[in-house]
Design goal:
About 60% of the residues lie in helices and about 0% in strands. The protein is mostly helical. About 30% of the residues are buried.
Length: about 775
């Protein structure tokens, strides 16, 4: 409303336009509406710095509360950070912000803006608000004291009585001086009652003209002719009228047949109630409200968290199994489709981690697929009329649910209908930012080789997103450009100037997505192409100028496939690989193949915001195996790790599957000597033992006789497996894996069989436990 807008304008007054645009571009967790209040607890200040220092400012350490202890705790953490980074923010400025002093947050934001962006704020001195306030509404002495000395200060910085009295005296003196200034500037206010300014004469009342009589208006009753056919019948009428003319008898006969067919279909509540009654546990069934349909009562209890979601799993499985009956009801009577969405809308509002939400989403996807197969126009039309209005509020307020809900929407719309449903979505959302976020997801849901009309639409919104003030949306728009390159890279070449301008964007997700765009372009271009040099230079600038380990991870992941074609990139690639930490290196190298997974699979490694669509792929297949294993050995040694992690074993297994070069045997031996304690001790790890057997057998047999020097460590590992310290029995799978390794080495022939027999014989002589003797006999 107008009053609310005026209030928000006043609470934001004093902030320059450039700071407001900067705050909006940071995509903070909630928008700034009242500067004095929103920055008092320090949470938003911490979030601003976390955008620039993601590893130094961890948002889980800050509490978005309004209590004084929470404010002081947040600012105490921020002060330590300011001291480390030498941010010039004084304690007095912080105190004024904590206690919500008027205009205290403005100089703080200006200081932060200048510090983080190296830009100066060009302030325009606003007109004083006191000039707009009528004299009777200006602050009194008591109000001036209240505004300048907050209650929260009396329990923190002004606990000393003498100091608080001194502050109050200063405020009173300032107020009295302002009154003296008013007398000098506005003498007319303080003249006698005879002054024209103080005239109290009343103006005579103005006579109003008599209201002319008007004639009485009569409204006739609207005559409504009832229709005794349902929507399906009316749709049939339209189809009949658009086809060849038929006689009245034939048309009436068709109408009667359709009416009869609609009446034969069971209402969906009968199908859903049967699924509930047949599959819900009896104790839960007795707790349902008998005055309602069983399915409605079940949904109510699920939404109220009065029933375990797992208890309803069989119910939803039965509903999915009976999808054909539900679809028949929807096709015959669209009212039943509306009823279906009305019943389960509450479940769609549950958290996305709730299994019931996932199962209902799956149920609707199955219904959409069946309805599209039966009647694609009706399926899309019904979803637009009844389903879309139900999910639009969730699309606006629950970003984490967008991918699932939009995927469900596409199940109701065949690919030729996507343009129509996207237009309907845009009209329903009536929010361009939210629509842009949705359009990114929809493009990633499209099958490969979608139509040129759709491609033009997505390119238009990708260009719109590239110029958006939100860094997250800019990164998401770049992910759309990656898909455009796969479809037609020639459409992206004119964008190179804009892409080059974005290399200094400053947001790590934008840099990472730029690398993905460049890598995709380099895969389809030829080294002799004119634009290849510009793309390679862009890649070099991004990798050399980044300080973000996440950007380096993306570089190592996406640039590996083009190294063999563009050898000029090898130097920066190896530098990025060397700069990765052990954890980041292991994550990238052990990443599963995203092409073998569905979008959103929890095992898929994704960087950044869920909208950004940056899947990490393992570069193992494109790199020299020896380079990878040497890098892994160096990072494990520098990290002082005592044991291998599953990712390490996965990497070792991957590189050892490659074909070895005979001249590299000595180098592989050196790496085995560096890691021998780690790989042999992994035999005692029940999570790694089975895989490490394959790693050790391939490694030892490839190196040859020189690997026998590590068998002393093998003997110690076998002793650990078969006679653990502390009296705890080693898991059976570890003992079985150790025996498998011994047998595999014995079967490899001399000299391995002879040396392994010596290790086993030594271990047998040291064992006193009969059970362990039997296990070792199995090895021998």
């Amino acid at each position: 409303s107008r009053a609310v807008g005026e209030k928000e304008r006043r609470t934001m007054a004093g902030l320059s336009r450039e700071i407001l645009k900067w705050l909006q571009s940071l995509d903070l967790s909630y928008s700034v509406k009242n500067v004095k209040r929103d920055f008092a607890n320090g949470f938003l200040v911490a979030e601003i710095f976390s955008r620039y220092f993601p590893h130094d400012v961890q948002m889980h350490s800050y509490d978005n509360g309004i209590g004084l202890p929470k404010k002081l705790g947040n600012w105490a953490l921020l002060e330590k950070f300011f001291m480390r980074k030498r941010v010039p923010i004084a304690r007095e400025m912080i105190d004024d912000v904590i206690h919500c002093k008027n205009d205290a947050a403005i100089p703080l934001l200006e200081t932060i803006y200048t510090c983080l962006t190296s830009k100066k704020v060009h302030n325009v001195i606003p007109r004083s608000d006191d000039e707009l306030i009528p004299p009777f509404a200006r602050p009194t002495a008591s109000k001036a004291i209240k505004e300048n000395i907050k209650d929260s200060e009396l329990v923190t910085t002004l606990q000393d009585d003498a100091e608080s009295r001194s502050r109050a005296s200063n405020v009173l003196q300032s107020h009295q001086q302002s009154l003296r200034n008013e007398r000098l500037q506005e003498p007319g206010r303080f003249t006698g009652p005879s002054s024209p300014q103080r005239s109290s004469q009343r103006v005579p009342p103005r006579t109003m003209p008599a209201e002319a009589p008007q004639g009485q208006v009569e409204f006739k009753e609207v005559q409504v002719r009832p229709i005794n056919r349902n929507i399906a019948t009316l749709r049939a009428t339209r189809d009949v009228n658009s086809s060849m003319p038929k006689s009245d008898d034939e048309a009436q006969r068709e109408f009667n047949e359709m009416d009869a067919k609609a009446l034969q279909v069971k209402p969906i509540t009968h199908v859903l109630n049967a699924a509930v009654n047949d599959n819900l546990e009896p104790k839960e069934l007795r707790l349902l409200d008998q005055s309602k349909d069983a399915v409605v009562s079940l949904v109510d209890r699920l939404v109220a968290s009065k029933i375990d979601p797992e208890a309803a799993r069989n119910v939803f499985e039965a509903m999915v199994h009976n999808t054909d009956d539900l679809v028949a009801g929807f096709l015959a009577s669209p009212k039943e489709f509306w009823r279906m969405f009305s019943i389960f809308t509450g479940v769609l509002h549950l958290p996305e981690t709730n299994s019931c939400y996932t199962m209902v989403l799956r149920l609707f996807c199955e219904i959409g697929a069946r309805m599209t197969a039966e009647d694609l126009f009706l399926a899309c039309g019904l979803f637009g009329d009844y389903g879309l209005p139900k999910i639009v509020p969730l699309l606006k307020t629950k970003p984490a649910k967008r991918k699932g809900l939009l995927g469900m929407m596409y199940f109701f719309c065949e690919s030729t209908m996507h343009l129509r449903v996207i237009k309907a979505l845009q009209d329903s959302l009536d929010d361009m930012d939210c629509f842009l976020q949705c359009i990114v997801i929809l493009m990633h849901l499209e099958p490969e080789g979608f139509s040129e009309d759709l491609l033009d639409l997505y390119i238009y919104y990708a260009m719109t997103g590239l110029g958006h003030q939100s860094a997250t949306l800019r990164a998401s728009a770049l992910s759309m450009v990656v898909l455009v390159v796969r479809q037609s890279h020639l459409l992206v070449m004119p964008m190179l100037d804009k892409l080059e301008a974005m290399k200094d964007d400053g947001w790590w997700e934008v840099s990472a997505q730029l690398l993905r765009v460049c890598a995709q372009l380099l895969q389809v271009l030829l080294p002799q192409d004119e634009q290849c040099g510009r793309v390679c230079d862009l890649v070099t600038d991004i990798v050399n100028n980044t300080y973000s380990p996440l950007v380096r991870k993306m570089a190592v992941s996406c640039l590996a496939p083009v190294l063999s074609k563009y050898t000029s990139l090898e130097h920066i690639y190896h530098e990025a690989l060397e700069q990765l930490s052990e954890k980041d290196f292991s994550t990238v190298m052990a990443a599963p193949d995203p092409s073998a997974m569905e979008l959103g699979d929890p095992q898929q490694q994704v960087l950044g915001n869920s909208l950004a669509h940056m899947p990490i792929t393992s570069p193992l297949n494109y790199l020299d195996p020896l380079l990878v294993v040497q890098s892994l050995s160096d990072k494990i040694r520098k990290s002082n790790l005592e044991n291998l992690e599953p990712e390490h074993v996965h990497i070792l297994l991957g590189v050892l599957e490659a074909q070895f070069e005979p001249e590299q045997a000595d180098s592989w031996y050196e790496v085995l000597k560096d890691l021998e304690l780690h790989v042999y001790v992994a035999l005692a790890d029940d999570e790694l033992c089975t895989t490490i057997v394959s790693v050790l057998h391939r490694w030892i047999t490839y190196i040859g006789p020189s690997a026998i020097t590590t068998f002393e460590t093998l003997g110690k590992a076998l002793k650990l497996v078969f006679s653990p310290d502390g009296g705890q029995a080693t898991p059976i799978q570890c003992q079985a894996a150790a025996k498998d390794l011994v047998l595999a080495l014995r079967e490899s022939g001399d000299p391995f069989s002879v040396e392994v027999d010596k290790v086993v014989a030594t271990l047998k002589n040291e064992q006193q436990n009969e059970v362990l003797q039997e296990l070792l006999d199995g090895c021998a």
